[in-house]
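# step 3/5: fold
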Amino acid sequence: MTTWEGYGGRGSFNWRAMPRYDGRCWRTDSTEQDIRICAEGEVHPGWGSSIAYQWISPLSGLMRFNTHMHKIDTHCGDGVQLMVYRGTQLQRSQQIGGGDNRGLDDSWQMQLSQGDMLYFVITIRGEPTCDQTRIYLEIYLRQ
């Protein structure tokens, strides 16, 4: 998976690689309102930008996708949203609230051709304070 940051406004689909690594996380800045992507699925979307994982299908066939996300920091914030795009077309969307430390599990299937590109986009629901979240993604080719 390739980690990217969106810029030019949320939802712009204008992506660029994260600029710096601080020894623990890739980040845009050191403030609570900026993007962080850390180990073990830890992410924090920012004010003007979303986080996206880009995935290109290596095979053709029916794929199964499993996602799990939950808030790490539940004492404040209003939660995050996960959107799955095929190119620029929204395929799936789910969100969790600010106090949701149990999270949300989701599973779905999609027919893909080799080379099809998906974006798994994590964005804020309203404002980014305390939106530190953990997200896991599994992708399987159905046999």
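# step 4/5: annotate
The longest strand covers residues 61-71.
# step 5/5: archive (pending)
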